[in-house]
Protein backbone atom coordinates (compact mmCIF):
# COMPACT_ATOMS: atom_id res chain seq x y z
CA UNK A 1 0.00 0.00 0.00
CA UNK A 2 1.56 3.28 -1.16
CA UNK A 3 0.11 5.37 1.66
CA UNK A 4 1.31 2.93 4.27
CA UNK A 5 4.82 2.96 2.83
CA UNK A 6 4.77 6.75 2.84
CA UNK A 7 3.82 6.83 6.50
CA UNK A 8 6.55 4.36 7.39
CA UNK A 9 9.10 6.54 5.63
CA UNK A 10 7.74 9.62 7.36
CA UNK A 11 7.89 7.90 10.71
CA UNK A 12 11.46 6.82 10.17
CA UNK A 13 12.44 10.34 9.19
CA UNK A 14 10.71 11.85 12.21
CA UNK A 15 11.86 9.47 14.85
CA UNK A 16 15.06 7.98 13.43
CA UNK A 17 13.80 4.55 14.36
CA UNK A 18 15.33 2.48 11.57
CA UNK A 19 16.96 -0.55 13.09
CA UNK A 20 20.68 -0.78 12.42
CA UNK A 21 22.44 -3.88 11.26
CA UNK A 22 23.76 -5.79 14.22
CA UNK A 23 27.32 -4.56 13.81
CA UNK A 24 26.37 -0.94 13.15
CA UNK A 25 25.95 1.77 15.75
CA UNK A 26 22.81 3.88 15.85
CA UNK A 27 23.32 7.46 16.92
CA UNK A 28 20.64 9.41 18.80
CA UNK A 29 22.39 12.78 18.92
CA UNK A 30 20.01 15.20 17.20
CA UNK A 31 22.47 18.07 17.01
CA UNK A 32 24.33 16.31 14.24
CA UNK A 33 23.97 19.28 11.93
CA UNK A 34 26.34 17.81 9.40
CA UNK A 35 25.39 14.19 8.90
CA UNK A 36 23.35 11.37 10.35
CA UNK A 37 26.45 9.18 10.04
CA UNK A 38 28.90 8.53 12.87
CA UNK A 39 32.14 10.51 12.43
CA UNK A 40 34.04 7.63 13.97
CA UNK A 41 32.53 4.18 13.53
CA UNK A 42 33.90 1.11 15.25
CA UNK A 43 36.90 3.23 16.30
CA UNK A 44 37.73 4.07 12.67
CA UNK A 45 37.23 7.36 10.85
CA UNK A 46 34.07 7.26 8.74
CA UNK A 47 34.64 9.28 5.53
CA UNK A 48 30.93 9.29 4.73
CA UNK A 49 30.42 11.71 7.62
CA UNK A 50 32.83 14.17 5.99
CA UNK A 51 31.17 13.73 2.60
CA UNK A 52 27.74 14.60 3.97
CA UNK A 53 29.12 17.42 6.10
CA UNK A 54 30.77 19.05 3.11
CA UNK A 55 28.26 18.12 0.39
CA UNK A 56 25.16 17.93 2.52
CA UNK A 57 22.09 16.14 1.19
CA UNK A 58 23.68 16.03 -2.24
CA UNK A 59 26.22 13.47 -1.09
CA UNK A 60 23.61 10.84 -1.94
CA UNK A 61 23.93 11.50 -5.67
CA UNK A 62 27.61 12.38 -5.82
CA UNK A 63 28.75 8.84 -6.57
CA UNK A 64 26.72 8.88 -9.78
CA UNK A 65 28.98 11.52 -11.33
CA UNK A 66 32.13 10.62 -13.27
CA UNK A 67 35.29 11.49 -11.27
CA UNK A 68 36.45 14.28 -13.58
CA UNK A 69 33.04 15.95 -13.55
CA UNK A 70 32.88 15.63 -9.79
CA UNK A 71 36.26 17.31 -9.43
CA UNK A 72 35.22 20.09 -11.79
CA UNK A 73 32.10 20.77 -9.74
CA UNK A 74 34.05 20.53 -6.51
CA UNK A 75 36.34 23.27 -7.82
CA UNK A 76 33.34 25.49 -8.55
CA UNK A 77 32.02 24.97 -5.03
CA UNK A 78 35.43 25.88 -3.59
CA UNK A 79 35.13 29.21 -5.45
CA UNK A 80 31.77 29.77 -3.75
CA UNK A 81 33.17 28.99 -0.30
CA UNK A 82 36.02 31.51 -0.77
CA UNK A 83 33.85 34.53 0.03
CA UNK A 84 36.62 37.14 -0.08
CA UNK A 85 38.14 35.70 -3.27
CA UNK A 86 41.65 35.64 -1.83
CA UNK A 87 42.36 32.16 -3.17
CA UNK A 88 42.15 30.50 0.24
CA UNK A 89 39.39 28.79 2.19
CA UNK A 90 39.65 29.76 5.83
CA UNK A 91 38.17 27.84 8.74
CA UNK A 92 35.46 30.49 9.14
CA UNK A 93 34.54 30.32 5.46
CA UNK A 94 34.39 26.55 5.59
CA UNK A 95 32.32 26.61 8.77
CA UNK A 96 29.88 29.13 7.28
CA UNK A 97 29.46 26.99 4.17
CA UNK A 98 28.78 23.84 6.19
CA UNK A 99 26.09 25.65 8.16
CA UNK A 100 24.62 27.03 4.95
CA UNK A 101 24.29 23.58 3.39
CA UNK A 102 22.44 22.29 6.44
CA UNK A 103 20.05 25.25 6.52
CA UNK A 104 19.38 24.79 2.82
CA UNK A 105 18.54 21.14 3.32
CA UNK A 106 16.04 21.96 6.06
CA UNK A 107 14.49 24.79 4.04
CA UNK A 108 14.10 22.60 0.96
CA UNK A 109 12.65 19.75 3.01
CA UNK A 110 10.06 22.07 4.57
CA UNK A 111 9.22 23.50 1.14
CA UNK A 112 8.77 20.03 -0.33
CA UNK A 113 6.53 18.74 2.45
CA UNK A 114 4.57 22.00 2.69
CA UNK A 115 3.76 21.79 -1.02
CA UNK A 116 2.93 18.11 -0.72
CA UNK A 117 0.44 18.65 2.11
CA UNK A 118 -0.76 22.08 0.99
CA UNK A 119 -0.87 22.14 -2.83
CA UNK A 120 -3.12 25.22 -2.82
CA UNK A 121 -0.49 27.04 -0.74
CA UNK A 122 -3.00 28.21 1.84
CA UNK A 123 -1.73 30.20 4.79
CA UNK A 124 -2.08 27.27 7.20
CA UNK A 125 -2.47 23.50 7.27
CA UNK A 126 -5.18 22.36 9.72
CA UNK A 127 -4.44 19.28 11.79
CA UNK A 128 -7.59 17.58 10.50
CA UNK A 129 -6.33 17.80 6.91
CA UNK A 130 -2.84 16.63 7.82
CA UNK A 131 -4.22 13.70 9.80
CA UNK A 132 -6.45 12.65 6.92
CA UNK A 133 -3.62 12.85 4.38
CA UNK A 134 -1.08 10.96 6.47
CA UNK A 135 -3.18 8.68 8.65
CA UNK A 136 -6.50 8.44 6.82
CA UNK A 137 -5.77 4.85 5.86
CA UNK A 138 -6.14 3.83 9.53
CA UNK A 139 -9.92 4.06 9.15
CA UNK A 140 -9.90 1.04 6.84
CA UNK A 141 -7.14 -0.88 8.60
CA UNK A 142 -7.74 -3.80 10.90
CA UNK A 143 -7.71 -2.30 14.44
CA UNK A 144 -5.18 -4.84 15.70
CA UNK A 145 -2.80 -4.09 12.83
CA UNK A 146 -3.17 -0.34 13.39
CA UNK A 147 -2.34 -0.84 17.04
CA UNK A 148 0.80 -2.85 16.28
CA UNK A 149 1.81 -4.59 13.06
CA UNK A 150 3.79 -7.80 12.61
CA UNK A 151 7.08 -5.95 13.09
CA UNK A 152 5.93 -4.25 16.29
CA UNK A 153 5.30 -0.85 14.72
CA UNK A 154 2.28 1.09 16.04
CA UNK A 155 0.57 3.52 13.66
CA UNK A 156 -1.75 4.65 16.41
CA UNK A 157 1.22 5.45 18.62
CA UNK A 158 2.82 7.43 15.80
CA UNK A 159 -0.42 9.32 15.27
CA UNK A 160 -0.55 10.15 18.98
CA UNK A 161 3.05 11.34 18.89
CA UNK A 162 2.48 13.51 15.83
CA UNK A 163 -0.60 15.01 17.44
CA UNK A 164 1.40 16.00 20.51
CA UNK A 165 4.27 17.40 18.45
CA UNK A 166 1.78 19.34 16.29
CA UNK A 167 0.29 20.96 19.40
CA UNK A 168 3.72 22.06 20.63
CA UNK A 169 4.59 23.52 17.21
CA UNK A 170 1.24 25.33 17.09
CA UNK A 171 2.36 28.53 18.83
CA UNK A 172 -0.97 30.37 18.51
CA UNK A 173 -3.09 27.39 19.52
CA UNK A 174 -5.48 27.41 16.55
CA UNK A 175 -4.73 23.77 15.62
CA UNK A 176 -3.38 24.82 12.23
CA UNK A 177 0.25 25.37 11.32
CA UNK A 178 1.80 28.18 9.32
CA UNK A 179 4.78 27.25 7.18
CA UNK A 180 7.13 28.38 9.94
CA UNK A 181 5.27 26.30 12.52
CA UNK A 182 5.20 23.36 10.11
CA UNK A 183 8.98 23.62 9.89
CA UNK A 184 9.16 23.36 13.68
CA UNK A 185 6.94 20.28 13.49
CA UNK A 186 9.13 18.58 10.88
CA UNK A 187 12.48 19.56 12.42
CA UNK A 188 11.88 20.04 16.16
CA UNK A 189 15.57 19.73 16.99
CA UNK A 190 16.14 23.06 15.21
CA UNK A 191 13.81 25.09 17.48
CA UNK A 192 14.48 25.81 21.14
CA UNK A 193 10.81 25.60 22.15
CA UNK A 194 10.53 22.13 20.53
CA UNK A 195 13.56 20.50 22.13
CA UNK A 196 11.69 19.14 25.13
CA UNK A 197 9.46 17.15 22.78
CA UNK A 198 12.56 15.70 21.11
CA UNK A 199 13.81 14.54 24.51
CA UNK A 200 10.42 13.13 25.42
CA UNK A 201 10.16 11.15 22.17
CA UNK A 202 13.66 9.78 22.64
CA UNK A 203 12.85 8.72 26.19
CA UNK A 204 9.72 6.94 24.97
CA UNK A 205 11.68 5.12 22.28
CA UNK A 206 14.38 3.79 24.60
CA UNK A 207 12.64 3.45 27.98
CA UNK A 208 11.12 0.02 27.36
CA UNK A 209 9.91 -0.56 30.92
CA UNK A 210 8.32 2.91 31.12
CA UNK A 211 9.90 3.79 34.45
CA UNK A 212 10.84 7.30 33.31
CA UNK A 213 14.58 6.66 33.03
CA UNK A 214 17.00 4.80 30.78
CA UNK A 215 19.07 1.94 32.10
CA UNK A 216 22.38 0.79 30.65
CA UNK A 217 20.61 -2.24 29.16
CA UNK A 218 18.04 -0.01 27.44
CA UNK A 219 20.75 2.38 26.25
CA UNK A 220 22.78 -0.40 24.62
CA UNK A 221 19.66 -2.19 23.37
CA UNK A 222 18.63 0.88 21.41
CA UNK A 223 21.96 0.93 19.57
CA UNK A 224 22.82 -2.70 19.21
CA UNK A 225 20.63 -5.72 18.53
CA UNK A 226 23.01 -8.61 18.07
CA UNK A 227 22.02 -12.12 17.09
CA UNK A 228 22.38 -15.03 19.47
CA UNK A 229 25.95 -16.27 19.55
CA UNK A 230 27.24 -13.24 17.68
CA UNK A 231 30.47 -11.71 18.92
CA UNK A 232 29.81 -8.25 20.30
CA UNK A 233 31.60 -5.41 18.44
CA UNK A 234 34.19 -3.49 20.44
CA UNK A 235 32.25 -0.23 20.12
CA UNK A 236 29.44 -1.70 22.22
CA UNK A 237 31.78 -2.00 25.20
CA UNK A 238 33.03 1.52 24.49
CA UNK A 239 29.43 2.74 24.68
CA UNK A 240 29.02 1.07 28.06
CA UNK A 241 32.01 3.05 29.25
CA UNK A 242 30.52 6.23 27.74
CA UNK A 243 27.27 5.59 29.60
CA UNK A 244 28.96 4.99 32.93
CA UNK A 245 31.54 7.78 32.60
CA UNK A 246 29.74 10.58 30.74
CA UNK A 247 26.03 9.92 30.15
CA UNK A 248 25.01 8.91 33.69
CA UNK A 249 26.34 12.04 35.34
CA UNK A 250 25.03 11.34 38.84
CA UNK A 251 26.20 7.72 38.79
CA UNK A 252 22.86 6.20 39.79
CA UNK A 253 22.90 3.65 36.96
CA UNK A 254 20.27 5.45 34.88
CA UNK A 255 19.88 8.42 32.57
CA UNK A 256 17.11 10.77 33.63
CA UNK A 257 15.43 13.33 31.37
CA UNK A 258 18.08 16.02 31.88
CA UNK A 259 20.90 13.56 31.24
CA UNK A 260 19.21 12.40 28.05
CA UNK A 261 18.86 16.02 26.94
CA UNK A 262 22.56 16.64 27.54
CA UNK A 263 23.30 13.55 25.47
CA UNK A 264 21.12 14.09 22.38
CA UNK A 265 21.06 17.90 22.35
CA UNK A 266 24.55 18.91 23.49
CA UNK A 267 24.89 22.62 24.15
CA UNK A 268 28.66 22.94 24.29
CA UNK A 269 29.74 21.45 20.98
CA UNK A 270 29.76 23.18 17.59
CA UNK A 271 29.65 20.43 14.96
CA UNK A 272 30.28 22.81 12.05
CA UNK A 273 33.36 24.21 13.78
CA UNK A 274 34.64 20.72 14.58
CA UNK A 275 34.10 19.51 11.02
CA UNK A 276 35.82 22.57 9.54
CA UNK A 277 38.81 22.01 11.81
CA UNK A 278 38.91 18.34 10.88
CA UNK A 279 38.82 19.01 7.13
CA UNK A 280 41.57 21.60 7.36
CA UNK A 281 43.70 19.30 9.50
CA UNK A 282 43.38 16.52 6.92
CA UNK A 283 43.93 18.62 3.79
CA UNK A 284 46.26 21.46 4.89
CA UNK A 285 49.50 20.15 3.41
CA UNK A 286 51.52 23.31 4.20
CA UNK A 287 50.08 23.73 7.72
CA UNK A 288 49.04 27.37 7.22
CA UNK A 289 45.54 26.79 8.71
CA UNK A 290 43.77 27.50 5.42
CA UNK A 291 43.14 25.59 2.22
CA UNK A 292 43.88 26.31 -1.42
CA UNK A 293 41.77 24.84 -4.20
CA UNK A 294 44.64 22.51 -5.07
CA UNK A 295 44.80 21.22 -1.50
CA UNK A 296 41.08 20.52 -1.53
CA UNK A 297 41.16 18.82 -4.93
CA UNK A 298 44.16 16.73 -3.89
CA UNK A 299 42.02 15.42 -1.02
CA UNK A 300 39.07 14.89 -3.35
CA UNK A 301 37.91 11.69 -1.63
CA UNK A 302 37.81 13.44 1.74
CA UNK A 303 35.66 16.34 0.60
CA UNK A 304 33.21 14.44 -1.51
CA UNK A 305 32.68 12.45 1.61
CA UNK A 306 32.05 15.59 3.76
CA UNK A 307 29.13 17.94 4.67
CA UNK A 308 30.91 20.90 3.18
CA UNK A 309 29.69 19.83 -0.21
CA UNK A 310 26.22 18.89 0.90
CA UNK A 311 29.01 18.31 -1.43
CA UNK A 312 28.16 15.02 -2.90
CA UNK A 313 24.79 16.59 -3.59
CA UNK A 314 25.92 20.12 -4.24
CA UNK A 315 28.04 18.65 -6.98
CA UNK A 316 24.94 17.21 -8.59
CA UNK A 317 22.81 20.37 -8.31
CA UNK A 318 22.32 22.25 -11.54
CA UNK A 319 21.78 25.57 -9.74
CA UNK A 320 25.29 25.45 -8.25
CA UNK A 321 26.91 25.58 -11.66
Model description:
- There is one protein chain.
- This protein has helices spanning 2-15, 47-55, 59-62, 67-81, 91-117, 127-135, 143-147, 155-169, 179-186, 195-206, 216-223, 234-247, 257-264, 271-283, 293-298, 300-303, 311-314; strands at 40-41, 44-45, 125-126, 176-177, 214-215, 254-255.
- It is mainly alpha-helical and 321 residues long.
- A hairpin with a 2-residue loop joins strand 1 (40-41) and strand 2.
- It is globular, with a radius of gyration of 21 Å.
Distance between the termini: 39 Å
- Strand order of the biggest β-sheet: 1-2
CA radius of gyration: 21 Å
Separate helix tally? 17
Mean pLDDT: 81
**Biggest beta-sheet profile:** 2 strands, antiparallel
SSE topology string: HEEHHHHEHHHEHHEHHEHHHHH
Q: How many runs of DSSP E, i.e. beta strands?
A: 6
The helix content, as a percent range, equals 40-55%
The percentage of residues in β strands lies in under 5%
Which class of secondary structure composition applies to the elements? mainly alpha
- The residue ranges in which pLDDT falls below 50 over 5 or more consecutive positions are 1-24, 39-45
Question: What form results from the Cα inertia axes?
Answer: globular
